[in-house]
Amino acid sequence: MAAAENGGGGESKAAFARIYDALKAELLRDPAFEYTESSHEWIDRMLDYNVLGGKCNRGLSVVDSYKLLKGVDVLSEEEMFLASTLGWCIEWLQAFFLVLDDIMDDSHTRRGQPCWFRVSRVGLIAVNDGILLRNHISRMLRLHFKKKPYYADLLDLFNEVEFKTASGQMLDLITTHEGEKDLTKYNIGVHRRIVQFKTAYYSFYLPVACALLLSGESLENYGAVENILVEMGTYFQVQDDYLDCYGDPEFIGKIGTDIEDYKCSWLVVQALERADESQKSILFENYGKKDPACVAKVKDLYKELNLEAVFHEYESESYKKLIADIEAQPSDAVQKVLKSFLHKIYKRQK
């Protein structure tokens, strides 16, 4: 893998993909465990099934952010390997969350194929596979970063983000408990807390924090950057909630089910804030039901309350505030990193 290979977007992705193969091979040679042929095959298949198949946006963001922080278009072979390894650690973390999340939600498909626990002969072995995925992160960090001065900070960062994400998942699960449907629990504060902790930290803050540590920076000096990225992650999830209802299924690649699934969506929270008593009773009667007629009534109410316009105003205000906060950052390189994240998601259609 020559250094010049990671210059462009496509080449960077190709180099990133090759590093996955190298990391997987190392894990399958881990001297701490005596692999049998069957256990070797199991892990090999489990990793390909769960770690691969996504867009790798989080992982690639580590590489892109590191380049911007260094002010270069091309990284050395070692720099590319280390940045990609941290990127893949985030993809492993994502896989760990999704494997367990799908079991908790009793989901059927993930990335266009059956959820791992629904695959023949897997079942609840998937719980242990989730634990292994999380442990692989520690193995990779130890193997490639143990002698780095920021090793303890990296371990601390992954532990902290995992705790925040699991806590956000708990809040989401107990708020939307099956059999305890109660819309009075839903408000903007609850929605915001779920989103920040469940999604924003690991999807937005973690890739940039990894790139900062790789650049020799101390995260203690970047509290404002953390706040901006968490705010960006919140905005991203609000967009997701909006697109679930208003996005074109042909374009976004899925049919939204937040209304049927009784999700604590930004739209239902906004509707509850704006509805009068008779409109609230329509929500209480129809939200969270699979019947298409009930879903249509909720969507009609959203239209009546003009939630599309409410969202567009929120989007515009969020963008203005984020840009102002980003431009207040003293480092031009950090500004470039933050703007690159924002411009990828602003006014996205899927």
TrEMBL record:
InterPro entries: FPS1-like, Isoprenoid_synthase_dom_sf, Polyprenyl_synt, Polyprenyl_synt_CS. It comes from the Eukaryota. GO terms for molecular function: (2E,6E)-farnesyl diphosphate synthase activity; metal ion binding. Its cofactor is Mg(2+). It is an enzyme of class 2 (transferase). Its EC number is 2.5.1.10. GO terms for biological process: isoprenoid biosynthetic process. Keywords: Isoprene biosynthesis, Magnesium, Metal-binding, Transferase. It holds the Pfam family polyprenyl_synt. Gene3D superfamilies: Farnesyl Diphosphate Synthase. Belongs to the FPP/GGPP synthase family. This is Farnesyl pyrophosphate synthase B2. It comes from Triticum aestivum (Wheat).
